[in-house]
Automatic annotation (TrEMBL):
This is HTH lacI-type domain-containing protein. It comes from Bosea thiooxidans. Residues 2-56 form the HTH lacI-type domain. InterPro entries: HTH_LacI, LacI/GalR-like_sensor, Lambda_DNA-bd_dom_sf, Peripla_BP_I. One of its GO terms (molecular function) is transcription cis-regulatory region binding. The keyword Repressor applies. Keywords: DNA-binding, Repressor, Transcription, Transcription regulation.
């Protein structure tokens, strides 16, 4: 296999001249550059990508850290970012924090050694003493996705989570429900806090009281959502409808209902956030508030590339995406004999 020294010898130039040609240095004369390229072609010389990245401080790699790769939202997000990155000549290194700050921090340290050109991060909701420092040490543009962080000045792409929570709850109220359970994520996550705020605002707009006893934190996970749904059903006055604020928790809710022999909307209505790929293939078809996942991933990469290219400078910007309410068959009027309202 030919080396850079072989190219220099054949072209009768120095190794430094070959290196300058590889890095498009304009101080190399056209005549010398032509000789170097002719020698490279004759020897079938291919520059070592790792060596070039060290010289140019560019690896062609973009890091993507997600919260839970088992969540279809994040797997769809990875596909969107990877497709858009490939179209721009970049590869994506995917890391899964599993919603644990220590794993997130380990990934950030690793990505620094990989000399990534930029990072797209869905931060965990856990308190991290080291995250801000580790992000700064990367010395690359950072774009936050799905979850913003205040005070760090990074670009962010997020859903209008308050509106998503409002529209889902409003739809259940329009169906006649007055006692609506909420299976939510931890309020330390801004997404969960805003979806809860939207739920409360819809209740307030309809003149309904907010009952904290109808709210359960299931950590955005499937199995805790099963337990949360069981707890709601065990209440002296159980809800006639349930709003689950992500797709994994919607699955958990539906599993518990199936285990109890309950059907929706016959016995209880269910709506979720995130449109599951099979939502229209099950019976009943699941109502949901969909996130524009592909558009979010593409927007995040576009912000990152604009930062890398220098066309976007200054303070970070926040792009807020609109949700879409998808009305299907899992929501209906309260079941006969089940209280629709609080006395």
């Amino acid at each position: 296999m030919a080396t850079i020294r072989d190219v220099a010898r054949l072209a009768n130039v120095s190794v430094a001249t070959v290196s300058n040609v590889l890095n498009s240095a304009d101080r190399v004369s056209p005549e010398l550059a032509g000789r170097v390229r002719a020698a490279m072609e004759k020897l079938s010389y291919t520059p070592h990508a790792g060596a070039r990245s060290l010289r140019k401080r560019a690896s062609g790699l973009i890091g993507l850290v997600v919260g839970d790769i088992t969540n279809p939202f994040f797997s769809d997000l990875f596909e969107a970012v990877e497709d858009a990155a490939a179209a721009s000549g970049y590869l994506v290194l995917l890391c899964n924090s599993n919603e644990r700050s220590e794993r997130e921090e380990a990934h950030l340290r690793m990505l620094r050694t990989q000399r990534i050109d930029g990072l797209i991060l869905a931060p965990t909701g856990a308190v991290s003493m080291n995250r801000a420092s580790l992000l700064a040490q990367l010395e690359v543009p950072v774009v936050l996705i799905d979850r913003a962080m205040e005070g760090l000045g990074y670009d962010a792409v997020v859903l209008d989570n308050r509106r998503a929570g409002f529209e889902a709850t409003q739809h259940l109220i329009a169906c006649g429900h007055r006692r609506i359970g909420l299976v939510n994520g931890p309020e330390v996550l801004r997404t969960a806090a805003e979806r809860l705020a939207g739920y409360r605002e819809a209740l307030l707009a309809a003149g309904l009281p907010f009952d904290p006893g109808l709210v359960r934190d299931a950590g955005f996970r499937e199995q805790p959502a099963e337990q949360a749904m069981a707890e709601l059903l065990a209440l002296p006055q159980p809800p006639s409808a349930v709003f689950a604020t992500n797709n994994l928790m919607t699955i958990g809710v539906m599993k518990t209902l199936a285990d109890r022999g309950l059907a929706c909307p016959r016995d209880i209505s269910v709506i979720g956030i995130d449109d599951l790929p099979w939502a229209e293939a099950v019976s009943p078809q699941l109502s949901a508030v969909a996130q524009p996942v592909r558009a979010m991933g593409e927007a995040a990469l576009d912000l990152l590339l604009r930062r890398l290219g220098g066309t976007l400078q200054g303070p970070g910007t926040t792009t807020v995406m609109a949700p879409q309410l998808l009305i299907r068959r899992s929501c209906g009027a309260p079941a006969p004999g089940r209280p629709a309202h609080v006395d």
